[in-house]
Design the sequence.
């Protein structure tokens, strides 16, 4: 089995933001020359997350709205006493900072309406995205 490690950086511009990273992840998969296996996409951050779903402009607004409603940035979270970003930690913890996607014939196995997105939860910041491809 081969293991290929790749990473890229992305700058976010809002406090809560959704960024499509599908093309950059697929570029790493192509560069890996691995035809069949798994692709793990991780953000090594405690206040960001990775999701797989449709990247459509109104739905993107809905993701932001949902995150705001569930994780309530203005709520009196205890962590906000030392660092004003409890909502971002909680959302990252619950949504998850990593996703695994199968690789077949050198391509990610994903549906037409499944893009890979970085969720910025405490931006703007510069974020690292780690892509590890395992297989043959
Ligand atoms: Zn914090």
Sequence:
């Amino acid at each position: 089995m081969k293991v290929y490690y790749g990473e890229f950086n992305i700058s976010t511009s809002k406090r809560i933001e959704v960024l499509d990273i599908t093309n950059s992840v697929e570029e790493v998969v192509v560069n890996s020359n691995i035809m069949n296996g798994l692709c793990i996409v991780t953000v090594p951050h405690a206040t960001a997350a990775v999701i797989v779903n449709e990247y459509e402009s109104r739905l993107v607004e809905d993701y932001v709205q949902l995150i705001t409603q569930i994780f309530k940035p203005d709520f009196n979270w205890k962590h906000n006493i030392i660092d004003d970003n409890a909502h971002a930690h909680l959302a990252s913890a619950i949504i998850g900072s990593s996703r695994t996607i199968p690789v077949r014939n050198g391509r990610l196995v994903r549906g037409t309406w499944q893009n890979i997105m970085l969720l910025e939860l405490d931006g703007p910041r510069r974020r690292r995205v780690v892509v590890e491809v395992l297989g043959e």
About this structure: The pocket of zinc ion is lined by residues 79, 83, 85, 89 (CB under 6 Å). The first strand starts at residue 2 and ends at 11.
